[in-house]
C-alpha cells in the first residue's frame, strides 16, 4: 500500500539512493563521470548517494517542502519508493536578506563529482528560468526542484502522486508551478497540466524542458504571479 507523507532528515539516506538511481542514465553520468571515479574515497556510487542525502538534509532544514511515498510491505516493514522536493515562496530568504551562497557552494562536494559540470548545469538552469519567467523567476511559484522514483517501482503512479500533491498545495496558495523536466519526466508533467515554455535546452548532453503549470483561476480572482 502506498502512502504519502512529509519527509524528515532521517529519510535522507534512502532519498539519496533513489536520487542516484533515478538519474543514473541522465545527469548522474555527467556529474559523476567515469574518468573521476578513481578519485572516490569509497566508490563513486556511494559518494553520489551520500552527496544527494546531505543536500536533501540541508534543503529540508532550509524549509524546502519535501514529500515521500512509502510502500508498506507484506512483512509490515515500510520502504520509501519516491520523493519530491519543492522550493516555495515561503522557503526563500526575505528580499532584504542577501542569498548567502548558491547551490554549488554550500555543500561538501565529493572528489568524484565534476564540480565544473555542476556549476554549468545550475548556471544554465538559472539563465533559462530568467529567460522564461523574467527577472523574478519562479520566486512566486512552487518550483519542483527534484522528483525521484525508485526505478524498480515505476508504473505504480508514485511520481504522479507526488506531483499532484504539490500542485494541490500550490493551488491552495493561489500559486502556479514551474519545473525543468528530463525527457523521462516530460510526459508525466504534460499529463498533469504542465506545458513546455521556450525551446528545448541541453544540460550536458541531455535534453531538458522548462515547463509551467497554471492553476485554474476563478472569475475576478486576483492573480499573484
TrEMBL record:
Cited InterPro entries: Acyl_CoA_acyltransferase, GNAT_dom, Trichothecene_AcTrans
Name the UniProt record assigns to this protein: GNAT family acetyltransferase
PROSITE patterns: GNAT
N-acetyltransferase domain span: 68-218
Taxonomic classification: Eukaryota, Fungi, Dikarya, Ascomycota, Pezizomycotina
GO molecular function, a single term: acyltransferase activity, transferring groups other than amino-acyl groups
Amino acid at each position: 500500500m502506498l502512502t504519502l507523507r512529509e519527509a524528515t532528515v532521517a529519510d535522507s539516506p534512502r532519498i539519496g539512493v533513489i536520487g542516484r538511481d533515478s538519474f543514473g542514465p541522465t545527469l548522474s553520468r555527467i556529474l559523476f563521470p567515469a574518468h573521476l571515479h578513481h578519485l572516490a574515497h569509497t566508490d563513486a556510487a556511494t559518494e553520489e548517494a551520500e552527496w544527494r542525502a546531505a543536500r536533501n538534509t540541508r534543503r529540508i532544514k532550509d524549509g524546502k517542502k519535501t514529500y515521500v511515498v512509502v510502500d508498506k510491505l507484506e512483512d509490515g516493514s515500510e520502504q520509501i519508493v519516491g520523493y519530491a522536493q519543492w522550493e516555495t515562496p515561503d522557503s526563500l530568504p526575505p528580499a532584504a536578506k542577501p542569498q548567502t551562497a548558491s547551490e554549488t557552494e554550500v555543500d561538501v562536494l565529493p572528489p568524484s563529482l565534476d564540480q565544473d559540470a555542476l556549476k554549468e548545469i545550475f548556471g544554465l538552469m538559472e539563465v533559462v528560468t530568467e529567460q522564461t519567467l523574467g527577472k523574478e523567476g519562479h520566486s512566486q511559484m512552487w518550483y519542483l526542484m527534484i522528483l525521484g522514483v525508485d526505478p524498480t517501482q515505476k508504473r505504480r503512479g508514485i511520481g504522479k502522486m507526488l506531483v499532484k500533491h504539490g500542485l494541490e498545495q500550490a493551488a491552495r496558495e493561489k500559486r502556479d508551478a514551474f519545473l525543468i523536466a528530463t525527457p523521462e519526466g516530460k510526459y508525466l508533467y504534460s499529463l498533469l497540466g504542465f506545458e513546455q515554455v521556450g525551446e528545448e535546452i541541453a544540460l550536458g548532453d541531455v535534453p531538458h524542458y522548462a515547463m509551467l503549470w497554471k492553476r485554474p483561476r476563478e472569475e475576478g480572482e486576483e492573480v499573484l504571479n
